[in-house]
Amino acid sequence: MEGIPAALRRSVLLAGHAAACVLLTTFVLPPDTLCGQGTRQAVDEAQEVYDNARDRHQEAFAAWNRLELAVDSLIEEFERAQGAGDDELSDRLQAQLYERAGLKQRTRGQLRQLKEEWDSAGEVLKQRIDEHQLSLLEQWEETGQDPEDELLEEFLEVDRLRDEVVEEMGAPELLELPEMLNIRGLPEDTRADLERKATAYEDYAELLETLWLSRLNEQIDELTRQLQIEEAIRRNNLDIFGGRLPPVGQGGAASGGGGVGDPGPTLAQQIEDLEILRQTVIDRQRLALQRAEELRGRRGGTP
Amino acid sequence: MKWTGLFPALALLAIGGGSARLEAQFQGSLTAGAAWERYRGNVSLVTVPHIDSAESVVAAASEWGFAGIMNFADSTGRGLFLSGEGGLRQFVAWGFQQRNYAPREHRFRLRTDYREFVWTGLLTIGATLDVRGVADLTPMPLYLAPGYRSYLVDAAFSRPLREKLEVDARVGFDERDYAGPSVLPTLDFLDRRSFEVQAGARRRFQSPPGDGDDHVRLFAAYLYHDYPSQARGDHALRLGGEWLLDRRRSSGLEVSVNASGTFNRSSSSRVEYNAARIEARAAKVVGSYLVSFRALWSGKSYVNPQEFLVPGEEFNNAAVFHGQVERLFLAEDMSIVVGAEWTRAETNISGDFFRRARATFGLQKQLRF
Description:
The structure holds two protein chains of two kinds. Chain A is an all-alpha fold. Chain A has two domains: 175 residues, no CATH class; 94 residues, no CATH class. Chain A is 74% helix and 0% strand. Chain A is built from seven helices and no strands. In chain A, helix 2 runs antiparallel to helix 3. The N and C termini of chain A lie far apart (75 Å). About 9% of the residues of chain A have low confidence. By secondary structure, chain B is an all-beta fold. Chain B has a single domain, classed as Porin. In chain B, strands 1-2-3-4-5-6-7-8-9-10-11-12-13-14-15-16 form a 16-stranded antiparallel beta barrel. In chain B, strand 14 and strand 15 form a beta hairpin. The N terminus of chain B is likely disordered.
């Protein structure tokens, strides 16, 4: 921001803000969108919410890492016990692994929820900072003071805060799909073992349904709705037949162009990505249920 | 059709230049509708030699249109974008003194953009083919723009200067050839070749841009227009700006305002003028309805006194107001549109005017694969 002439920066921001307020007022928008009063207190309150959300996520993330280490350690022990032919220890460790796997899935869901809360708090904080900066610019405009004063300090301070928030939040974290279970029925498995393994597959399929499929469907529906709106607006902006304006000449008729950096139809790309992911989830779910059915079909084994 | 070879060339450039996998997507729409229009006015156009003493006529029209954009992009951000739109409109007009007219107009436009991230910025190379045709061209006051073929090639580069601030530059050349002498010789007066170089700066209000595209963009452009049949060359300086409020950041309200001023100086002193144009658009989603407004004002002031109409420059000012309501999210990705438009243009030489009122109804079907 420092490199832009202060007068130009103020003029552009104020002109945009003033026009936005007039238009938004005309169209009766919720008051906290763009014309809200941007005070330092509002920034501080949003920052407190943001800090709490970030800390909660970081605590949960640390717990997740500890759990991953514990599961890795259990897997190693399990493999050693199997290698040593210690069936009793193997069974006990296997039961613990099932338990930890369930805990891991639940923790993954919590972690995702906390990340969403953190992202949401970050967005609110950034918006409050934007509003506060605009408010400071308006104060400059009203008082006509030299920018090299405490208002500028305040402006730069919240600007730095904004940079910190952007850096902390980073790129959106994508949690991977839970790995496909790889449990097989063994010749020596009892009916109870087979039942437990089949149930593990069913739990996995249910997890995919509740944690992934329902959410993916919601996201795809919402993006499809947004795409319809975007396409309708794009279509409205087109002059399909051309030449509806009477001839006023080149000077008055042409606009300034633009769209130089227009990234294209990103909503369609997002929908396609989610549809591919949904198909992967459905395939895994179907495979898990198929394996559960196969295991149940073999329950005629040792009681 | 000499420029049409650019489209496959750009496609080869995009597809053949690397091993990254391309993904193709298409989104578009089909439109079928009807319109009722009423025209009034007494202005003459140099390029429409037919004269009818009627000062008021009405017309009904059936309208068929399509619009679509196809996107081939790979994981590196490199992409080829094909967009096109077109339509057919058949009128039945009443009220002329000489005879009843049944004009038909068709138009299609095809645009190819190749985009690649280079030198920490986005490079875009594009080409456009635009064709329009009119059969049974009517005298005034039922104004229909004449048919033409137009070719445009352009290249643009934009790059971030710092967070939320981008600069861009663009050069473009286009040629527009109006329907030939066998149809209407006076239309050749409108033939032109243009060159434009433009530089701009865009200040975004969101970061990253995917969260919304609110921005202000200011630009300056130099344009040269050559009208060979008028033995005229125009040099123009255009300054302007755009403000966009993205609906993702404002409860579904999208607003854009474009304004520009042009200083046109010519080898013919008759067409030296200063002009201004401002256009505002607003669209708001209210439940399942998309409500849209558009207003445009365009005007110019000649440097020297005008005594004759100049081809393609007949009006001194024009204003358009358009509003429509679209019912979205019907079954099968269909929507229904009802709209109205009012246009008025005036010339200062004789005080003559042109006015059009228009009401429309249409069905639209969205396509995506």
